[in-house]
Amino acid sequence: MALDLAEVTGAKQAEQIKKTQEKSPKIANGLDKDAFMKLFLEQLKNQDPTAPMETEKIITQTAQLTQVEMQEENKKAMKEMVDSMKVMQETNNEFKNFQATLKETMDKLGEGVDSSIEAAGQMAQSSAFQSVAMVGKIAETDVSGVNYTGEGKVHFSLFFDRPIDTSKGKAVVQIFDESKQLVRSISLDDKNGQGGYLDFAWDGLNDRGEQMDSGTYSVEAEYNLDPKTNHYLTTRVGRGEIQSVLFDKGKPLIRMGELILPLSAALEFYDKDKELVR
To answer: How far is the C-alpha of 185 from the C-alpha of 112, rounded, in Å?
Structure first.
């Protein structure tokens, strides 16, 4: 079995005692608190009963011990306070950095919002100008007929690009059901010489005088037969000249005779000189 020479000679124990003494605070004559206390108690125990230690000396030594203990406590408290202040300082620095980053982010966000608002305003203004420029043009929309409730009359208007000339073929309004079957023809003889938007009313009867069911009916008209091409000019409900542009909560609406439709309902725009024929 190997022997620890340092343990046999007592060197290890001496080293441990030395380390303990180095850690303990010194009171007087190089003694630490524990050694001082031990020596003080030995003095009290071994003092001559006939000549006891003077009270002043006892008080002095006790005061030294108390003072050292207070110094230790104060030192410990000061260290804890310094550590706390360091933590607070680090926290304050981190908070300042967070505030700076947050401010930078908010500034960039504000710049982005301002740019978006400005761009939206420019787009809205451009859209408004473009919408107004459509006035006077012909629009083809996704509306192609009327809804009949099954009773009473239904009113509608048709746009005629040219004045109706009843001497050129047979001018007529035609109403079709959802199966594209012709149910009613209305003569335009009483509209001779008229053009633009003309108003009509359908009583819901077919050409045989029978009441039609409720539903959606498409409405078209043909007029002014061209003898050279043998084609009529045509028009329909949902087609016509844009008379004005309205705005409802910033959204453009187009007025076409009795119809007021959102701009998104328009499928095509073109000038008046383009006429539909068939």
So the answer is: 60
